[in-house]
Design goal:
It is a single chain. The chain has 13 helices and 4 strands. Helix 7 runs parallel beside helix 9, helix 8 packs antiparallel against helix 9 and helix 9 packs parallel to helix 11. The chain folds into 4 domains: 43 residues, no CATH class; 129 residues, no CATH class; 120 residues, no CATH class; 29 residues. Strand 1 and strand 2 form a beta hairpin. The strands form 2 sheets. It has a two-stranded antiparallel ribbon with strand order 1-2. Helices cover 67% and strands 2% of the residues.
Length: 383
């Protein structure tokens, strides 16, 4: 059961589309004024910047309140676990109350409360579990995250559930091969379920599962022995058997075309994007898989390949009737693309100076200047 009605969420989506069309001059201001009353709903929203601020402030307030309580009471380990479980129930109830009473929708406050409830749940279970049952904490995290994703429709909570799967695999076995297989099996099962049931907001969850499945298979991108090593240093090939290693290499080449075919057939932009990312990652990690030497000009060759592919694809789409082939077009139909490109450019602008600035070369201790003199009017100096 969703916290928001289908009609209210459709109204929010329609309002966003109308605003997008108006900014692209697809409709006139008069048309927008006539259609906007049909998108009115009682959900309260805010812009992305205030949403982030409210999310962070709510997290800080909840964490500070909890920390102050434990500093003043100093409970035992077992009592701490019980209190954290109570805090999990209270924060979840507060999130439900904020939605039902104040009709908050992607407002930041209810999101932070829901996230805190999952964090308190997992943190509270750990002191109460023995070493043989610690896997119940990530299992509870998976279930709670999936429920909040279903209840409030927060896509990043679904991503959190996928991360809990990595934690669960780490608790079940210390074998890196088994960890990869377990995580890939969970993601594959979730992918089959999402495709079969096709729930609301299935597009982004399916895209996340495709990407997670690929990352679990590509041994040079994921290290699943510890949760915090998910984006760490890629594991060495010696950690895996030769059969498993080369099987994953074959799968890294087979999976991107399958993702792209799925995305094209469903006309699902997010899945197509994930398929493109997976194809790029396959090209990037192919040399490490094969043990070939990497060269400084490899990124340049990859960039040239991407430019040529983009130009050919654009020309092929533009040659269709009215610039459309099978429902696809190279023309920009939404201002959202322009917005995200600006955001990406700004992010790259912050990262690029550190990436391209050459490392200062240390002065050589063998270089010594001397032997010359300069000066005048009675002054002199060696250099």
């Amino acid at each position: 059961m969703r916290a928001y009605s289908a009609s209210a969420e459709e109204a929010v989506h329609a309002r966003s589309v109308l605003k997008d069309w108006l900014s692209e001059s697809f409709i006139t201001a008069e048309q927008h004024r006539r259609m906007e009353p049909d998108t009115v709903c009682d959900l309260r929203r805010t812009n992305i910047f205030l949403r982030l601020v409210l999310f962070l402030f709510t997290l800080i307030i909840v964490a500070a309140a909890g920390g102050l309580f434990f500093v003043l009471t100093r409970p035992s380990s077992q009592t701490t676990g019980v209190l954290l479980l109570i805090f999990a129930a209270l924060t979840y109830a507060a999130a439900e109350f904020a939605v039902l009473r104040f009709h908050l929708y992607r407002y930041g406050i209810e999101e932070a409360l829901a996230v805190c409830s999952v964090a308190f749940l997992c943190a509270g279970m750990l002191p109460l579990l023995s070493s043989s049952t610690e896997f119940l904490a990530p299992a509870a995290g998976i279930i709670a995250s999936l429920w909040i994703w279903h209840r409030f429709g927060l896509p990043y909570v679904f991503l959190a559930a996928m991360i809990f799967v990595v934690w669960l695999a780490d608790d079940w076995t210390s074998s890196h091969t088994a960890q990869h297989v377990i995580v890939a099996a969970f993601y594959a099962a979730g992918l089959i379920t999402v495709i079969a049931l096709r729930p609301r907001d299935h597009s982004i969850s399916e895209a996340f599962l495709w990407l997670g499945l690929y990352l679990a298979i590509n041994l040079h991108l994921s290290s699943l022995n510890l949760l915090w090593q998910w984006w760490g240093v890629p594991p060495a090939a010696t950690e895996f058997s030769s059969t498993f290693y080369w099987t994953t290499w074959v799968l890294t080449w087979c999976l991107p075309p399958a993702i792209l075919v799925r995305g094209v057939r469903q006309k699902d932009r997010l899945v197509i994007t994930v398929g493109t990312i997976a194809a790029l990652l396959t090209l990037i990690t192919n040399k490490p898989y094969l043990g070939w030497q990497r060269h400084t000009w490899d990124p340049m060759l990859l960039g040239a390949l991407l430019i040529a592919t983009a130009l050919l694809l654009r020309r092929w789409l533009a040659a269709g009737t009215n610039g459309v082939r099978h429902g696809f077009t190279a023309q920009r139909l939404s201002a959202k693309d322009h917005h995200w490109m600006n955001v990406g450019s700004a992010a790259l602008g912050l990262v690029a100076p550190q990436a391209v600035t050459p490392t200062p070369q240390p002065a050589s201790p063998d270089v010594h200047f001397g032997g010359g003199t300069s000066g005048g009017a009675g002054a002199s100096s060696d250099f």
